[in-house]
Amino acid sequence: MGASLSNLGTNGSMIGPGLGDIPEGCVARVFLHLSPPEICNLARLNRAFRGAASADSVWQSKLPSNYHDLLDLVPPERYKNLSKKDIFALLSRPVPFDDGNKEVWLDRVTGRVCMAISAKAMAITGIDDRRYWNWIPTEESRFQIVAYLQQIWWFEVDGEVKFPFPPDIYTLSFRLHLGRFSKRLGRRVSNYEHTHGWDIKPVKFELSTSDGQHASGEFCLDETELDDGYGNHKRGYWVDYKVGEFIVSGSEPKTEVRFSMKQIDCTHSKGGLCVDSVFIIPSDLRERKRRGILK
Amino acid sequence: MTQLDRLSVYHWLNAWCIKPVGGALVRQEPEYILLALMGSPLKKIMLCSSEKEIFSVEEQVMVQHSVIINNMIEDGSYNHEESKIPLDCVDSKTLKKVIDYCTHHTHHHNDNQEDLEAWDAQFLNVDSNGLYDLLMAANYLEIRNLLDLIYGTIKNMIKGKKIDEIRRIFNIKDHGFTPEEEEQNRKEYPHFY
Questions:
Q1: Is B53 helix (H, G, I), strand (E, B) or coil?
Q2: Domain of residue B23, residue span
Q3: I need a labelling partner for A244 at 20 to 30 A (CA). Which of A153, A262, B81, B102 fits?
Q4: Do B31 and B61 belong to one domain?
Q5: Are B96 and B10 part of one and the same domain?
Q6: Bridge-partner residues for A214, per DSSP?
Q7: Do A13 and B163 touch (CB under 8 A)?
Q8: CATH number given to A102-290
Q9: In CATH, what number does A5-60 get?
Q10: Is residue B184 in some structural domain?
């Protein structure tokens, strides 16, 4: 080997063709094992990589098997004639449905389906009575609005969604904030004037699916004031309360999920709470994000 | 020593209730030993590299691994008595390595996974040009498991690395883009970050 003179390879090296000359088809096979952000980064390597980074075969493998169901939520003119890569880009931004009160999107790294459901889509007991509940517009919600509870005895929030989730294990959680918040002189300030009652009894969170799965949890949303001077650890920021998990096996085209949170012990009142939304996220994706592994 | 032709071998195996699979003799450990004891040489085929060097290799080894060679044997276009299979795009050094891979995996397919993986890692301990040659040969001969192994290795070489570093590893001196195309690249992909 090496007895004959090799031609200059297209990669400009003196010793014959190398990995820079891998044809586009082979690069596409390698891309099947890499994530979308990695593929987009590698598109800048050379022409073969750039071509493979746009290949339908690569992006078809990143889309969920039922991505057509997601496309049904989008006006057809927005996705006709799009390459599979562009379809992935389209679906990886939040796609609103149900009058904009729900959103679904593909996680950019794994291509798995995630969903957020606004408090606006939920049935909240007493929501129409301004003595109890008010709607507060805010940038801190992806739906630009949250429900603020001033005070009530019967605290109940119910919701449901019926959707063609791809097979996976999903975690459902409620996004809540004790106290209300505002911006004062450029700084975020929390106000707990109405916050009371959450440390007396826990709130019960539940979910159930149309195929008979159940999960539930109980949490006290607040802590009784402690004298240790360290302050309250549950106030002042958004908390995701995990209700539980459900499995989508794929045997049914659509999965129906019902969820609720309740504190209906009417011996005490409670209040001073913001309810933003419910998230439905694949469980190990949620775990990796919480541990800061995925960006 | 008895020379067994293909038909005799089939009859013999049938007598022992052992079934050949898919036109190739699937190597089962005891039968392999029996055949060796009977003194019959296993059928060989001739592969010819781009440098006109001939390699003799067990037919069943190549038939098990290479779809292209399997098809040639199956459809009868290969005549055992006379022909050799010309592989004009595979040089001797690479062909020898490919034959090594197929032979090892045929003879050692009952080894435990760790040992096989260690052997594979050692096998792929080549420079990036050597890896390219192996990739092209495996692609041409359609050797699925070798291809998957090489794709996995390439993936590991590029995963998590910056573009400049990959260009250095792959020895890419000229990426082939014009400055305008480079700029367009930078603009085209930011929304994924």
A1: coil
A2: 6-38
A3: A153
A4: no
A5: no
A6: A208
A7: no
A8: 2.60.120.260
A9: 1.20.1280
A10: no
Structure tokens at A132: 């109890």
Q: Which residue has the higher pLDDT, B52 or B188?
A: B52
pTM: 0.80
Statement to judge: residues B33 and B62 lie in one domain = no
**Chain B contacts of A30, Cβ < 8 Å?**
151, 154-155, 158
**What does the pLDDT average to over A24-45?**
92
pLDDT at A12 over 50: no
CB atoms within 10 A of CB A161: 21
Give the pair of three-digit tokens for residue B51.
Answer: 């440098």
Does B62 share its domain with B23?
no
Judging contacts by C-beta atoms under 8 Å, the chain B residues touching residue A21 are 132
Domain-embedded: residue B181: no
CB of B173 within 8 Å of a chain A CB? The answer is yes
Residues of B in contact with A11 (CB under 8 A): 170-174
Residue window 104-123, chain A: list those with CB within 8 Å of chain B.
Answer: 108
Instruction: Find the mean pLDDT for residues A264-269.
Output: 94
B2 pLDDT higher than 90: no
Is any Cβ of chain A less than 8 angstroms from the Cβ of B135? yes
User: What is the reported pLDDT for B170?
Assistant: 86
- Both B11 and B97 in one domain: the answer is no
- Residues B138, B63 share a domain: yes
How crowded is residue B122: how many other Cβ atoms within 10 Å of its Cβ? Answer: 8
Residue of B164, B189, B191 to mutate when probing chain A, most A C-beta within 10 A: B189
Decide if A250 touches B, using CB distance below 8 A: no
**Structure tokens given for B45:** 């085929």
Q: With an 8 Å Cβ cutoff, are A41 and B91 in contact? A: no
The residues near B8 (Cβ < 8 Å, ≥ 6 apart) are: none
- Among candidates B74, B93, B72, which has minimal Cα distance to B83? B72
- The reply to whether B29 and B94 lie within a common domain is no
